[in-house]
Design goal:
single chain, Pdz3 Domain, 2-enoyl-CoA Hydratase, Chain A, domain 1, four-stranded antiparallel β-sheet, globular, disordered N terminus
């Protein structure tokens, strides 16, 4: 199952110029048996992994691995099989399972994938879909999780929290019924048009018919200043995807300038559904959040495998680049509109990669609090490797903050020793910014009183099962068109 859902750390179009497909094959430089174009593509997937993959040292030799054995009706499916096998060799000594082990899909890659350029388009802010994502609030209650501005769903007046009472011919929902769930997935993810009946919070209903459309994603779903009284003002921003910085920088600047002008005393960054994106955007957001005392200080270090670090790469898209720790260190800039000592992040199992990098980079410099559920767990990132018409994404690097903290492969756990805060459930029945929505209310209560609100909400988070028979992360993977990853946009010579 392709790990392209609503969440992890990336950027797309790395060592090649823009998003052009590089027709060069590493088999041109490394002797492999003659074969068809697709044979050479399969060879290239293996050869690039053998040289650039962060855990390349666990891979067998070419003959033993035999990349040409992976077949399927569709070429992309065959390549995905190959990538999945590559991902399972290296074992994490802490867990005894592969670093890329996915508890929901054993044997499939948690991080690595290959596609035909779709992710590159999405992370450059252009996407083609309905502009919303569904979410089971309870086992039989399907809700709208979020809506992107300017999308077909937004133009139809759909809001987060609206209850879906009918979808195409489906008039009842049961997450414990595999057939019913598949019908929902097919209606939402595998079609270009959809009809729905939705119920607003006031009990009124309306019908909509949507067609998939291409639009520019604004990942900032909402932002506002919440006045708690007694001199306490809270800046709140929902950031849903780390799209290319040029498409969101001016919006972020305006929002944080407004926060500063309003004199906020606390900041809440809502990353509950943010699966990651461009590293440059994560770094920029960190600069806006961090206090002025961080100017010029180390944000995080990047670590590549021994072949790349030593400069011994031989393949076209990785040869000749600086992969040293020193050459890839990230530092805070000099612009810091806020001067706060703490920050709150709202998180769920959908919070991944670039989102986790954002959180981790601030830990040595601020009191970082997490509210929600355990994050996805992706301290590694990648760059796109162009192979014919495909783009290969396998972890090439790991990041650690200035204190050497990282390695959160099983996720960041709120209210733990490493990540203070509160465990709390998502409340998808309420819109973003509603001060009674559980995750926001829990955070505001702490800011106001110094104690986290005890949750009585039964709404499930993405990585919670409880009364929901089908895990929300599985549904999210298939019903959300978002992404999980951390991508570098470019490299230094």
């Amino acid at each position: 199952m392709k790990k392209v859902l609503l969440f992890i750390l990336l950027g797309v179009a790395v060592f090649s110029e823009g998003c052009k497909k590089d027709k060069t094959s590493p088999t041109d430089a490394i002797k492999t048996p003659p074969g068809s174009t697709f044979d050479l593509i399969r060879d290239s997937v293996y050869l690039y992994a053998k040289e650039a993959y962060y855990w390349h040292d666990a891979l067998p030799d070419y003959t033993t691995f035999n990349p040409r054995q992976y077949t399927a009706t569709a070429d992309l499916d065959a390549l995905t099989k190959e990538v999945n096998v590559i991902s399972q060799y290296k074992i994490n000594p802490v867990t005894g399972k592969p670093y890329e082990y996915s508890p929901l899909d054993p044997g499939e890659a948690k991080y690595s994938f290959i596609d035909d350029g779709k992710i590159s388009s999405e992370l450059n802010s252009v996407t083609g879909d309905f502009g919303f994502a569904p979410f089971y609030s309870t086992a039989t209650d399907l809700r709208v999780k979020y809506v992107y501005a300017g999308s077909p769903a937004d133009n139809a007046g759909i809001k987060r929290g609206y209850k879906i009472t009918a979808m195409n011919s489906i008039t009842s929902f049961n997450s414990g019924d595999a057939t019913n769930v598949q019908a929902v997935i097919d209606a939402f993810s595998n079609s270009t048009s959809i009809t729905m009946t939705l119920q607003r919070p006031d009990g009124t209903s309306f019908n909509v018919s949507l067609n998939v459309a291409v639009y520019t994603v604004n990942p900032i779903i909402t932002s506002k200043v919440i006045d708690l009284g007694n001199g306490k003002k809270v800046g709140y921003i929902v950031f849903n995807s780390f799209v290319v910085l040029s498409n969101v920088q001016s919006k972020l600047d305006a929002i944080f300038s407004g926060f500063a002008t309003s004199g906020i005393t606390d900041l809440i960054v809502d990353l509950r559904y943010d699966g990651g994106g461009y590293v440059e955007t994560a770094q920029y957001l960190d600069g806006l959040i961090a206090p002025s005392s961080t100017s010029g200080k180390l944000m995080y270090n990047t670590y590549y495998n021994d072949v790349l670090t030593a400069g011994n790469a031989t393949l076209p898209q990785v040869k000749g680049f600086d992969f040293s720790v020193k050459g890839n260190a990230a530092y805070f800039g000099s612009s810091h509109p806020l001067n706060l000592s703490r920050v709150f992040f709202i998180v769920t199992g959908s919070t991944a990669s670039a989102s986790e990098l954002t959180i981790n980079s601030l830990r040595p410099y601020m009191n970082v609090q997490l509210v929600g559920k355990t994050t996805y767990g992706k301290p590694v990132g990648f760059f796109a490797i162009n192979i014919n018409k495909y783009q290969l994404y396998t972890p090439e690097f790991e990041t650690k903050n200035s204190a050497g903290q990282g390695g959160y492969y099983t996720g960041m756990v709120p209210a733990s020793t490493d990540y203070p805060g509160s465990i709390a459930n998502d409340d998808v029945t309420k819109d973003f910014g509603d001060v009674t929505e559980n995750l926001l209310a829990t955070t505001l209560n702490y800011i106001n009183t110094g104690a986290y609100k005890t949750s009585s909400i039964t709404t499930q988070s993405l990585n919670s099962t409880n009364s929901i028979a089908v895990d929300q992360s599985t549904l999210a993977t298939q019903m959300d068109r978002g992404f999980k990853g951390m991508i570098l946009k470019g490299k230094r010579k």
